[in-house]
Amino acid sequence: MSVTPRASAASTPADVDFPRALFAELEAWSRESHPFEACGLLFGRRATGRIEVVAVRRYPNVAGERARDRFEIAPRDLMAADREACALGLGLVGTWHSHPDHPATPSAHDRAAAWPDGLLAIVSVSASGNAELLVFQDSGERALAACDRDSPAVR
Q1: Helical residues (DSSP H) of 34-155, grouped into ranges
Q2: What is the pLDDT of residue 1?
Q3: In CATH, what number is assigned to the domain containing residue 84?
Q4: Which residues of the chain have pLDDT under 50?
Q5: Number of domains in the chain
Q6: Residue 7 lies in a domain
Q7: What pLDDT is recorded for position 14?
Q8: Within 10 A of 127 (CB to CB), how many other CB atoms are there?
Q9: Is 34 part of a structural domain of the chain?
Q10: Residue 137 lies in a domain
């Protein structure tokens, strides 16, 4: 099942194909890391006007004392991920991280650190059990896609 892009302005950056099973992986990792931010990378393919997320990877959050509200992936992990993606015939198409007990909207720090033309997937997880995924591109001004655990279908 794929995430369907949300309606947006005429300049929609890309359609996003993000399988629901991958959301389940991100949700599980985000819950395991709670109350700290979990983080990782999105592997996939790009085509004209479309980004297909094929796999997700989790990496240690090396943000130290800021790990409750920031994420950082070590450079060695970024290089290893790039090699792995190339070996699989894929590319790095973005990052993901969790927002423990906060909405799945990009912070000013998230927007400033966003990869040009890359996806930014944010998983909001709460101690009460709620989870939501929002997928953004570039500066994260508007969500391209959304998913939550209780939806009968990804939207």
Answers
A1: 75-87, 108-113
A2: 33
A3: 3.40.140.10
A4: 1-11, 152-155
A5: 1
A6: no
A7: 77
A8: 10
A9: yes
A10: yes
